[in-house]
Amino acid sequence: MSLLPRLLKPAYFRPFIQKCYTSSSSSSASTTDSRKWVTFATCASVSSVLGLGLYYQAYANPISATTAAEEGLHPTHYPWPQNSPLSGFDHKSLRRGFKVYQEACASCHSLSRIAWRNLVGVTHTVDETKALAEQVEYDDGPDDKGEMFKRPGKLSDYLPSPFPNEQAARAGNGGALPPDLSLIVKARHGGCDYIFSILTGYVDPPVGVKLGDGLNFNLYFPGTGIAMPRILFDGLVEYEDGTPATTSQMAYDVTNFLNWAAEPCLEDSKRKGLKAVVGFAVLFGISIWLKRFKWIPLKTRKIVYNPPKI
Fold it and tell me: Exposed site from 114, 154, 163, 164, fewest CB < 10 Å?
């Protein structure tokens, strides 16, 4: 049968028409499915963004039922040297801060987590610390007769508490309990900034503000009424190095000391961290060199195929 009569018959083109129709139908179906997926993805993205916005509105920025006066002012941020990743405490300031604590704070606040030995090499020498510890008498015993006795302090003793128990502390402070200062920097929002602001934030109450009995007006204390009176005044202590004992200087020094008391291992941690970073950097460089040394012969080799000549 010749080719021309076959081409003139409609049955000859039927398989091609069916194939094109099937291809167009599948293409149309895939396009429809892709549009559905795009629509679904768009709706999911919009829903996620709206959900995050509602979550932020509800939790990240909560509405407070208290006023700014009841919350207290937010403390100003100060550039404390120990906050830098490559610097530590100002040890001269720590020595002055311990003196401020002894003469202004120790009569009400304890420092129960700090032992005399912790001061060695930080604020005082061994001999100076021993002399300070021996000025305090500690209960010890029992002796051979079964009786308790007093003895001078040792480096292993912890700094003494001004009160024997909580009831005595409240009785001596009008019902208020002076907190232990060992972790006070970590226990307060704002840390050093808050402590410094509290110590320097005493002012006369504004006109019309009435405080309860035994309370003092402090701008940075929540509620602005604090039981602790102002304890730092210019010239309260006499520094050994001749530094002027202004209120802000004493607040700065004692805040530094309390920050060290809360983190006595901070400088050691920074030194170890720096050593770890340097060590990992060296190991990373060695690993890159070793990888290139092992793989460069394989990555730079040239394979040539020479077919045999026939």
Answer: 164
Same domain, 28 and 77: no
Check whether residue 31 and residue 55 sit in a common domain. yes
Asked if residue 109 belongs to a known ligand binding site, the reply is yes
Per-residue pLDDT tens over the stretch 34-79: 677 667 767 777 777 777 776 666 555 544 444 555 566 889 999 9
Q: Name the pTM for this structure.
A: 0.73
Q: Give the total number of structural domains in the chain.
A: 2
Q: Are residues 86 and 203 in the same domain?
A: yes
Alpha-carbon distances, residue 255 vs 45, 95, 198, 239 (angstroms): 49, 12, 10, 16
| Dihedral sign of CA atoms 111, 113, 114, 115 in order | positive
117 pLDDT exceeds 70? yes
Q: What is the pLDDT of residues 255-292, one digit of tens each?
A: 999 999 999 999 999 999 999 999 999 999 999 999 88
Count CB-CB contacts under 10 A for residue 208.
5
Which structural domain range is residue 24 located in? 17-60
Indicate if 100 and 26 belong to the same structural domain. no
> CA 151, CA 135: separation in Å to the nearest integer?
10
Distance between CA atoms of 187 and 166, rounded to whole angstroms? 19
Residue 296 amino acid letter: I
Identify whether residues 33 and 99 lie together within a single domain: no
**What share of the chain in percent tops pLDDT 90?**
56
Lowest mean pLDDT segment, chosen from 13-17, 286-290, 305-309:
13-17
- Same-domain check for residues 103 and 79: yes
Is residue 228 annotated as involved in ligand binding?
A: yes
Residues 185 and 253 both lie in one domain: yes
Residue 29 inside a domain? The answer is yes
* Annotated binding-site residue? 124: no
